[in-house]
Amino acid sequence: MIKIAFTDFWAEPKAFNPYNNFFLHCSRSLREEVKVVEPKSCDFLFYGPFGNQNKYYHDCTKIFYTGENIQPKLSQCNYALTFQPNSLGGRNYRLPLWYLYIDWFGVGTYDNPEWLVPRETLESAGYSEVGSGKLFCAIVYGKKVRSRELAIKHLSTYKPVDVYGKANPINPIGDGELAKLKILSSYKFSLCYENIISPGYVTEKLLHGKACGGVPIYYGCDEAGLDFNPDCYIHATKYRPKELSAKIAELDGSPEQYEAIRREPLFREPPSLDGFYQALTSIFNGEQIGAASPRTCEKKTRMKDAIRLKPKIHGSYKSQEVAWEMTQSSNEFKDPIPNQETWGCIIHHGDIARKGNRNELKELLASNKVEFAEVFEQRDITMPECSWKKKAELIGCTLNKSISNALHQEHIGRVNWPSTALSMVKECTRELVNIIKSGGEKYSALCRKKEIEQILRDKHVLAWKNFLARKENWLLVIEDDAIVTQESGTTFQKVLMTNWIKQLRTTYLYLDLAGGYPMRDVVKPTDQLEAWDGRDLWVSNKPSSNTTCTYLVTRDLVEKWVKRFERGGRRVKSLPVDHLINVLSKADKNKEISYSVHWEPPVLIHGSMSGSFETSIDGLAI
């Protein structure tokens, strides 16, 4: 007999039922005797992201599940079941949320979800028995997201889009899946937009949109085309807003084209739980598990046509306005940047927990024929005595970082100096009080963090100098907490081999390839975002370093960095690497502007920001 328990799952609109749920039925399909017990008595604890009760239980195998856009904290669990395509060292299995909305076991409901899509409905092409809509288009949602608002705005220029749910109090609907499906079954089209595009993140939205009998307009990651039949829906990320409106208008005016898509089945092959059963068996046996869901395992990634971006610079190079044209290229990699022009380095400190990440990064670089070296210069962190002199150094570093952060906010147009100055004074005062009063472990932690920041900064500078001793034109820097995703290889190859970055006509170019803070926190709200390969893309002639986890930079900019660093004085040489890059990249007067390019979702994921690793104060982000 195995004893399982559940905690920290959802509580609204109805609470998670520990005696009737997907995980319990799957467990009982594998083992004859499975008993649900209290967490303190269990062998295996399934827990979610909606609480912290799991932290009180240690004498069991802990299995984290999330259908949300949350990265697993592997320091707190034995295994993870997430949307993340990466295996994370054999401890993660991709189980997207839509799997929990199918009636695999003939139970009809889990209470929440209150209604499960019958398997026989999934296997019938067209779903005509569910409903045949006569109205134009609708969306049901509660959270206002920019992508949804833009889609509604642009599509309504053709015909009005009806909005239901918490986002529109005028058209409220009841809780539960049936209320939603009843509404959408009256429409020809339904907007099925994820909250965010993130590798592997596919929820129930496309499943429900198709089950309603119409044609879903889906906005989400590329893995949706592997999980489902890509011919049964309109993938909104392939179109710019006006192009999407034109496409929908074309289908709306052509019954033959519309019916051809509507009658496409959601799955080309019947879905299966075989892959998850294998992963769950490995969990029960204490073995490593794989990364991909069954649908992803059975299919190969499809290469889309390359998208080439051609910048139009309005006015002089001092102008901040950059507009983009997007054109489809029949040749995937035309006018390539030869790979031998790129040299990479991996910065790490030899931590065994990062070995799996480093190996995947090395494979990624090797597969793209990028020659690389490892920057591994370890220094022992010594704790200084608690003295006023050392506290004065900490105070100076705090003020330095605060000023640099304020200047960075000014660069990206997000600063209101009166309020920023007041906020900065309050924050600095709080930090200064902490430093002055600190002693013992707290003082040691502050000193340790400062020392780690200096070590990491020095490793980046060392990588820059090593690069300048070579002949390559591009430097790629990767820290060992960068996480490779399923689509990193394809996108990384396109970044290296497409020619559009040369067309910016600047020798100073910084490309941020990994995600840390959300893009809305590092760009101006008024900036126009465009799409490239299913991603939001932001280009600015103002330096804007999101994170330093992974970046590609031109040789000329590296030379500029090193020269300014050498003559920058004590203030520059004490900055953490994030602030350092912003300060060094700041355009000099009457000189060519440095450009920053950011993607969301990123090519790689920043591990510490995504919750996969502890913070730098624990010594793991070096």
Summarize the structure.
This protein has 622 residues and is of the alpha/beta class. Helix content is 33%, strand content 18%.
Any chance you could write out the topology, listing elements then pairs?
Blueprint: E1 2-7, H1 22-30, E2 34-36, E3 44-47, E4 61-65, E5 79-82, E6 92-94, E7 102-103, E8 117-118, H2 119-122, E9 135-140, H3 146-155, E10 161-164, H4 177-184, E11 187-193, H5 205-211, E12 215-219, H6 224-227, E13 234-235, H7 241-252, H8 255-262, H9 274-284, H10 294-298, E14 307-313, E15 322-328, E16 342-347, H11 355-367, E17 371-375, H12 388-411, H13 417-437, H14 440-468, E18 474-479, E19 482-483, H15 488-497, E20 509-512, E21 514-515, E22 530-532, E23 535-540, E24 550-554, H16 555-567, H17 569-573, H18 577-585, E25 595-600, E26 604-606, H19 607-610
Parallel strand pairs: 1-2, 1-3, 3-4, 4-5, 5-6, 7-8, 9-10, 9-11, 11-12, 12-13, 16-17, 16-18, 20-25, 21-26
Antiparallel strand pairs: 14-15, 18-24, 19-26, 20-24, 22-23, 23-25
Structural description of this entry:
- With 622 residues, the chain is α/β, with parallel strands linked by helices.
- The chain has four domains: 102 residues, Glycosyl transferase family 10, N-terminal domain (Rossmann fold); 139 residues, Rossmann fold; 226 residues, Spore Coat Polysaccharide Biosynthesis Protein SpsA, Chain A (Alpha-Beta Complex); 50 residues.
- It is 33% helix and 18% strand.
- The protein has 19 helices and 26 strands.
- It is globular and about 70 Å long.
